[in-house]
Amino acid sequence: MTAPLLRVSGLAVRYRSRSGDVDALHSAGIEIAPGQTVAVVGESGSGKSTLAHAVLGLLPDAARIVAGRIDFDGMDLTRLHERAFTTLRGREIALVPQDPGTGLNPVQRIGDQVAEVLRLHDLAGARDAAVRTVGLLEEAGVPEPALRARQYPHELSGGLRQRALIAMALAGRPRLVVADEPTSALDVTVQQHVLDRLETLTRASGTAVLLITHDLAVAADRADHIVVLSGGRVVEAHDRGEVLCAPARRTVPRRPPARSDGDVHVRAEALVKEYPLPRGYEGDQVLRAVDDVTFELRRGETFGLVGESGSGKSTIARILLGLTPPTSGRVLVDGRDVAALSSRDRRQLRRTVQVVHQNPYASLNPRMDVARIVQEPLASFGIGTRAERRARAAELLDLVRLPAVLARRRPHELSGGQRQRVAIARALALRPLLLVCDEPVSALDASVQTQLVDLLVDLQAQLDVTYLFITHDLALVRDLAHRVGVLERGRLVEQGPVDRLFADPGHAYTRRLLAAVPGSRTPSAPTLPT
After folding, report:
1. pTM of this prediction?
2. Range of the domain at 461
3. Same domain as 206, residue 124
4. Distances (CA, A) of 461 to 254, 260, 397
5. What is the pLDDT of residues 93-117, one digit of tens each?
6. Residue 254, pLDDT score
7. Which helix (H) or strand (E) holds 517?
8. Is the separation of the CB atoms in 330 and 339 below 8 Å?
9. CA angle (435 as vertex; 424, 336 as ends), nearest 5
């Protein structure tokens, strides 16, 4: 039997907080052999990322290892000083982080960031690094790698940014890659492509992979061995093909019936959005991100917008919110052209149209505590007294199922799921008529997704609120939306009632999206939430 490359045994990690110590891991243990992929699965707050950060030596100052060992090729990483870890990270152990938005430097070109890994570990000189960078991006599945190397992170889609992070992680040819939720925020087809590329590259080099995920279907498809964490403890461990013991089934939310008299609340007419491409790009000098898109949002309904990364979903959301002007076309809200509104009227429009962003870590002010974040929209519009705003914030936190003790914490003290619930509470503070939800639950585990989607369903029934729900999760669209539109490369190729579209998709692209849903690679995959 091959000796493990990584062995975690009896690991216990404790966090200090203002409300007292919190034990995040209790005697956790895993083993990974060279060339093996081990998935660690669990809900938000189960200790998955704590385990990953402990292996990488990236635990925050508030955390400390109180027991156990982390042996990498016979070396106990718990006794390693930071200087030694700096040499090890990138060369022997590499990280593919969850969020490419924070994993990449926004003011450096993609190529420079990949080349930096080579230079830091003396794997290439300045001139050779530039050439090897293009090759690494190409290996990671980045199209037109020479062009992408000259671009900045904000000029790439989420899928391309994640591929760039894979190129960075594999640049030093590490023996272990820690992939911490590497595709949780990506649509199913891009998720499939990114995981395929990571699997191909690591299998070819014999690299071991520690895959952190909340998605049992992804774990079943990709891992040789699955470890389930709950409350910081290992509760199950199985080899690929074995059936996990009755994981909790997801309660399918029952969307409220669409109003038969629902008038048109928002109408997008022939929207076009073009962006100039950087110099040196061969072919057209303009990227048409949105191409002649028309659809309606009826009051009290949910319109789902689905498509691959880079299909134009978020660009359409920004146009509807008035954050990005269309190149041509218009947006009508209750029959009024948003572009023709005065600044005063546009400000009032923002009171009735709110947004829940994909990444709560980037959209929440890190200097504010939770209570102040939720009260911020109320204060901005001068609504209520301080006491009334505090009471409303407490009501909203309870509504999104956050305990009152979290009100005084800051975003960095919360899990990803908790941060997104704070973002939803803030968006609901003004009781909006339209909520634009841009991938609001993409990075959350199934049980937290269910809680938040159930909440959105309840609020729609109570408040008659309209949702534009942007997501790559087709199951969520089926459960939540009344109508759905499918975007491919900026064009709306199909739209209609959700039940009809899922039962009989008319476009080949829609059929391809449905076929890419995770969980189909392994015939004897574990029982999955539905």
Report:
1. 0.70
2. 264-362+432-515
3. yes
4. 11, 14, 19
5. 999 887 777 789 999 999 999 999 8
6. 62
7. none
8. yes
9. 150
